[in-house]
Design brief:
Elements lengths: L7 H17 L5 H15 L3 H8 L2 H19 L5 H20 L8 H29 L10 E4 L5 E4 H13 L1 H4 L6 H20 L4 H20 L2 H23 L5 H6 L2 H8 L6 H15 L17 H9 L1 H22 L6 H20 L2 H4 L1 H18 L24
Antiparallel strand pairs: 1-2
Protein name: O-antigen ligase domain-containing protein
Keywords: Membrane, Transmembrane, Transmembrane helix
Organism: Acididesulfobacillus acetoxydans
C-alpha cells in the first residue's frame, strides 16, 4: 500500500477526518478512528522503508517501553481494568506511529498544519461546548452543581470537571501566541482569534487559572522564537508592535471598554485568582511529596501520602502511580520531543508560521502537563501529545526520512508558503 501521485489528497482528507473524529471523540467513539489508523499501520508494515522508520526511531521504543510498563503496573495494582489496560497500551503508540510515518512525511508541509489544527479544534470544541451547554441549562457553570462541574452534550451529558475543561481548551488558549503574527491570511487569523476567545471564555467560566498562564506564556514563547528567527531590524519592529499592543490593551481595560473591567472584577475567576496566591498553591506541596515518594516507593502504587488526590503534574503523577522507571521513560520521551522541536527551528525548509504554531502547541501541552493530572483526567490529551511528538520526530530528521506522500495537486484551501 503506497500513497503517491494523485491518491495523496484523497488519503490526506480522509485521515484528516479520521483524526478529527478521534480528538473530538463524540460519544466516546473515537476508538473507531484509532481502529482505522491501526489497520493503516498494519497495511504499511510490508513497506520496508516504513518498518525501518518505525524500528529506527528511538522515541518509538521509549514510548513502547513506557506504555508497557505503565499499563502492566497499573493493572497489577488494580488501578485500571482490562479495557483501560488496552487503551493505555495502544492508543498513545498508534497515534505516535501515525504521526511519524504519515503526517510528518507529507511533502507539502502546509498540510501538516491542518493536522495541528484538527488536534487544537477537536479538543477545544469539547471544552467550549461543555461551558455553553451547561450555561444554557443552568444559567452558570456553578449553578446546578455542588462544585465546578459541567455537562458535555457530545458525550451524552457526561460530567466534566473544571480541570477537565481546562485541559480541553488549553491548546486553543495557546493560540494567543500566534494572534499577533503578521499574516495576509485573514481567514487563518480570524480562526485563531475565534478559537482563542472561545477557549479563554470557557476557561474563565470555570475559574481556571491555568488558562491565563498558558495565554501569557504562549505569547512570550512565540515572541522569543520570533526574535531568534528574524533579523535585528525586524526584531525591533516586532518588539515595538508587542509593546504597543500591551499598552493599548491595558489602556482599553482601564477605561472599562465594553464593561470588561467590571465584568472581570465581579467574575468568579477573578475571585478565585485573588483568593489564593500561586506561591501558596497546594500543588507545589503535592509535587514535593510525590517526588520524595518515588525514593520511598520506587514501584509506585500510590503509597506516598499527598495533600491532594493527585500530584497535579504528569511526570510526578506517573511516578507516584507506577514508580520511578515509567517516570524516567516519560521524562526521556518528553525531552526527546523538545530536542526534536529545536531541530525543527533550525530547518530552513519549514515555514516560520509552522514553527510558531508548533511553539504555541507545545506551550499548551507542557504547561498543562506541569499543573494537571492529565493521565487521570484526560488520557486522550496525552495521546494528542504523542501524535504531535511523532510528527516532530519525523520532521526533525529532515531529508533522512524520504517522504511517503508525494502530492502533485494544489491544496483546496491553500495556506501561504510562509504566511508571515
Amino acid at each position: 500500500m503506497r500513497l503517491e501521485g494523485n491518491a495523496v489528497p484523497k488519503y490526506t482528507s480522509f485521515f484528516l477526518l479520521v483524526s478529527a473524529f478521534i480528538f473530538l471523540n463524540p460519544f466516546h467513539r473515537g476508538i473507531l478512528g484509532l481502529m482505522v489508523l491501526s489497520v493503516y499501520i498494519v497495511a504499511m508494515i510490508p513497506n520496508k522503508r516504513i518498518t525501518n522508520a518505525i524500528l529506527n526511531d528511538i522515541g518509538f521504543w521509549v514510548l513502547l517501553s513506557f506504555d508497557l510498563l505503565t499499563s502492566i503496573l497499573q493493572l497489577s495494582y488494580q488501578f485500571i481494568n482490562n479495557k483501560t489496560f488496552v487503551d493505555y497500551l495502544t492508543y498513545p503508540l498508534i497515534l505516535y506511529i501515525f504521526g511519524l510515518i504519515f503526517v510528518g512525511r507529507i511533502k507539502e508541509k502546509k498540510r501538516i498544519m491542518y493536522f495541528f489544527y484538527v488536534v487544537i479544534i477537536g479538543f477545544a470544541i469539547v471544552g467550549i461546548s461543555t461551558v455553553l451547554y451547561t450555561t444554557h441549562f443552568y444559567g452558570s457553570t456553578f449553578d446546578g452543581f455542588n462544585s465546578r462541574v459541567g455537562l458535555n452534550p457530545l458525550f451524552g451529558d457526561t460530567k466534566i470537571s473544571a480541570t477537565g475543561v481546562g485541559i480541553y481548551v488549553s491548546l486553543g488558549i495557546a493560540l494567543s501566541g500566534v494572534l499577533f503574527i503578521k499574516t495576509t491570511n485573514i481567514l487563518l487569523k480570524g480562526l485563531n482569534a475565534l478559537i482563542f476567545l472561545l477557549s479563554l471564555y470557557a476557561s474563565l467560566a470555570f475559574a481556571d487559572r491555568t488558562g491565563l498562564i498558558v495565554a501569557v506564556l504562549s505569547v512570550v514563547s512565540v515572541y522569543v522564537i520570533q526574535m531568534r528567527l528574524n533579523s535585528a531590524r525586524k526584531n525591533v519592529k516586532t518588539a515595538s508592535l508587542y509593546i504597543f499592543i500591551a499598552i493599548a490593551l491595558i489602556f482599553l481595560f482601564n477605561i472599562n471598554l465594553f464593561n470588561l473591567k467590571t465584568m472581570w472584577l465581579e467574575s468568579s475567576a477573578f475571585q478565585r485568582l485573588t483568593g489564593m496566591s500561586l506561591t501558596n498553591d497546594p500543588r507545589f506541596t503535592a509535587w514535593g511529596e510525590a517526588f520524595k515518594g518515588m525514593f520511598s516507593y520506587p514501584l509506585g502504587g500510590k503509597q506516598a501520602r499527598l495533600n491532594l488526590d493527585y500530584a497535579h503534574n504528569l511526570w510526578l503523577d506517573v511516578g507516584w502511580t507506577t514508580g520511578v522507571f515509567p517516570f524516567l521513560l516519560l521524562l526521556v520521551f518528553s525531552l526527546r520531543t523538545i530536542r526534536g522541536y529545536f531541530k525543527i527551528l533550525r530547518n530552513q525548509d519549514l515555514s516560520s508560521y509552522l514553527k510558531y504554531l508548533l511553539t504555541a502547541i507545545l506551550c499548551g501541552f507542557f504547561l498543562t502537563f506541569m499543573v494537571e493530572p492529565v493521565m487521570e483526567a484526560n488520557v486522550l490529551f496525552f495521546c494528542g501529545f504523542c501524535f504531535i511528538s511523532g510528527i516532530i520526530s519525523s520532521l526533525s530528521k529532515g531529508d533522512a526520512n524520504p517522504p511517503v506522500c508525494v502530492s502533485r495537486q494544489p491544496l483546496a484551501v491553500p495556506l501561504e508558503e510562509d504566511p508571515l
